[in-house]
Amino acid sequence: MALFKLFFALLLLCTCTYGAKFTFVNKCEYTVWPGILTGSGTPPLETTGFELPQQSSRSLQAPNGWSGRFWGRTGCKFNGTGPGSCSTADCGSGQVECNGAGAAPPATLAEFTLGSGSQGSQDFYDVSLVDGYNLPMIVEASGGSSGMCAATGCVTDLNKYCPDELKVSNGDACKSACEAFGKPEYCCSGAHNTPDTCKPSVYAALFKMACPRAYSYAYDDQTSTFTCTGADYTITFCPSIPTSQTAVVNDTPTTLLIPPRRLLKAHQSRVLNSQVQ
């Protein structure tokens, strides 16, 4: 009887603390080093960063109420003889583990706030390009109920379409307009720090056209935040041809390449005219 009570208590404990399983899948043609930053006030996961070779996967458990973000680092060199670094989305720790440090922009981010575990408590999640973009990534929910439980992310390789003024080094990543220019209207800061005063720029429009379900600027909530209850999540880097579930992630116009170029050309003309005047 005592053993049964102990087993039941442990079962209840597991039921109450279990939040979600995150599975990371690397379909890139190169190694990716996922980084993890846990939000304030929630317990950290078992690792804050790890190596994920091509065509491999790894799963991590997160408790109820956990919040944080994931991203993929690329071009990393960790040889064990001293501090290492990554060419994109480096967290600056000098190690494979990020140890509480976030990604240096530009970085494609997956952001989560899990439900508390109470009945009907929803998870909130999104993929954000507000800090720029470094590689394709999608998030898929499985086994959930209630809420949209939709796939989100960015399948398009934005590095191929990145304007010259936003490119990083050899085109390994694409900056946000905020990082590139630092102006309040691009950063949603100062007098532009409300939904009414901060509108999507021509650069945000480019990101949004390529990746309709990802955040393109700070107040892009209505089309970019998703909910689900009781789900597990798969984060895939460099996803291949979308499945039936993920096909809508990049439900973009067939004229994808033409409008951004026109938008950028018009923007550059306005900038040139203002400089002449």
UniProtKB/TrEMBL annotation:
Q: List the disulfide bonds.
A: 28-238, 76-86, 91-98, 149-228, 154-211, 162-174, 178-187, 188-198
Asked whether the UniProt record includes Secreted among its keywords, one would answer no
List the signal peptide residues. 1-19
Which CDD domains does the protein's record reference? TLP-PA (cd09218)
Disulfide bond as UniProt keyword: yes
User: Keywords in UniProt for this one?
Assistant: Disulfide bond, Signal
State one Pfam family annotation: Thaumatin
Q: Which InterPro entries match?
A: Osmotin/thaumatin-like_sf (IPR037176), Thaumatin (IPR001938), Thaumatin_CS (IPR017949)
Q: What is this protein called?
A: Thaumatin-like protein 1
Protein source organism: Heracleum sosnowskyi
